[in-house]
Design goal:
Alpha-Beta Plaits, 2 domains, four-stranded antiparallel β-sheet, homodimer, elongated, 246 residues
Chain lengths: 246, 246
């Protein structure tokens, strides 16, 4: 099963100036694609910190996505950080440069040297284009560099999403009236017996309107296996405590 | 200036089964307290991974907060992970144990062995109580262990928040009509001259209703310094491009 990591780069998220909507979006997308999201890091605008985090993620995960820190200003340090992670210099990319030149020409404005900085990428970067995209996605090894602006993050991810599609997850849920302490031994038993099924237990502070106090989730890429695990857990729990299953 | 790290523990966040509201809450709280949030990690329910992340954060940041993974079920691994981080065993805490016993006695239910597991904490942990709290906050060195349930996370943090209060941040904002490329050189100049002021530049995809395309933020713990930097930047930018300041 492919796994992924997400690195959100930006002081504005850590300081609460901007609400991070790219993370919830990517969580949903990766889940729907059947990709396990293994870790999220939210880090500051700092080259060394970006470099260290990208290195760690690129070593551990199949796919790494970064959000933010691309642009022409002093606080846009993602390209430099990714370059540090892979020990390569930042270089002006001829194809990106000409895309930028054409863009500014089409607006009949002179391209500023500062705007051309957006063509400076880690050496060896590849460009992933698509007919829907004005700008391609910059990719370095297994790291996909996406911008922080939510509309653009979304558009760029959607243009490359199919390359990540994997076997889908299958989810079963059981909603029970009991507290976690009472059901823990049953969960242990099923978790031990069905190693290929991820089992979660999520209590509420107060019972929900329908009376459930704990939501149990069972998840696997094997539909038959997760169904068996769910059925066996339900019979251990007993019908009295089960409000509903899905 | 004190800094902090937040570690959110839970497969349910990474898989999108639960929306993480503790992070936005803590971002706002720490900002209001004058504490710099330096990094956020969202990680899976895995003892080794929790241990490694807690170790890294505890070494780097003044205060570390964890969210989630405490409770009586098999997927509640935060205490074990924090114990690994500090190389200590998990032990039953007599005071926590008696609090749990009293709680179940007050509900006239027998306390289950599984519920008493919530009294198992890393050796050397201290308890931070307050009159508002039924359960104290468990603290190991500079790591504050908070539960994932949002209402309880919030209540527990609010009970201990004053111990983190620091000199407040001062924020100035300038909203401009220009693109980032046009203002980048002015930002560079102010960023270089005022090292004690953090300067951010946040573009919109399309101009806002009031016409601004970029929000510039200037922030510091020195109110006079940030005001000077903001005034000097405004005069570099020129009144024509400034929509408003705050």
């Amino acid at each position: 099963m492919a796994n992924a990591g997400l690195i959100v780069i930006g002081d504005e998220i850590l300081s609460g100036k901007t609400t991070d909507t790219n993370t919830p979006f990517l969580i949903g997308e990766l889940r729907a694609l059947g990709v396990r999201l293994s870790e999220i890091a939210v880090i500051a605008d700092d080259i060394a910190g970006i470099g260290e985090t990208v290195r760690r993620f690129a070593d551990r995960f199949d796919h790494v996505f970064t959000s933010g820190g691309v642009g022409p200003t002093h606080d846009d340090l993602t390209m430099a950080g990714v370059a540090v992670a892979f020990g390569v210099p930042v270089e002006r990319h001829p194809e990106l440069s000409s895309i930028l030149q054409s863009y500014y020409a089409s607006k009949q404005t002179t391209v500023l040297e500062r705007n051309l900085r957006m063509a400076d990428v880690p050496a060896g970067a590849t460009l992933l284009g698509s007919p829907q995209l004005t700008w391609p996605v910059v990719c370095v090894h297994n790291v996909y560099i996406l911008p922080g602006i939510p509309e653009v993050f979304r558009r760029k991810f959607e243009a490359i999403r199919e390359r990540f599609r994997d076997v889908p997850f299958h989810l079963r849920q059981i909603f029970v009236t009991s507290e976690e302490g009472e059901i823990a031994r049953h969960l242990d038993k099923i978790a031990q017996k069905y190693e290929g099924v991820a089992i979660g237990s999520y209590p509420l502070l107060n019972a929900a309107d329908d009376g459930h106090r704990v939501k149990i989730t069972l998840e696997s890429k094997d539909a038959a296996l997760v169904q068996r695990a769910s059925d066996e857990l339900a019979s251990l729990l007993g019908v009295e405590m089960i409000i509903r299953r899905s």
